[in-house]
Amino acid sequence: MTHVRDLIDIRSGDEFDQPVPFGLVYPMRNADGSAPPSQRGRTWEHLTAAGRVLRPAR
Q: How far apart are the first and last CA of the chain?
């Protein structure tokens, strides 16, 4: 299975990027196209605990 960089939150539509397999996930843009309030990378565990459900964008 190949690494998928482009991710989307199926609940909100926000877009994320994971440049390195098993690395941090970075917010890229909100569903409305605006910049996210923080562009700090997060772990999968943090995003899951925050209620995010990320799936490949394509």
A: 15
Picking from 32, 44, 46, the residue whose alpha carbon sits closest to that of residue 7 is 44
Q: What is the mean pLDDT of the chain?
A: 95
pTM: 0.90
In the block, tokens 């565990």 appear at 45
CA 19/CA 3 separation, integer angstroms: 9
Decide if 36 contacts 28 (C-beta within 8 A): yes
Query: Hey, what are 53's tokens?
Result: 């459900």
- Asked if residue 14 lies in contact with residue 36, where contact means CB atoms within 8 angstroms, the answer is yes
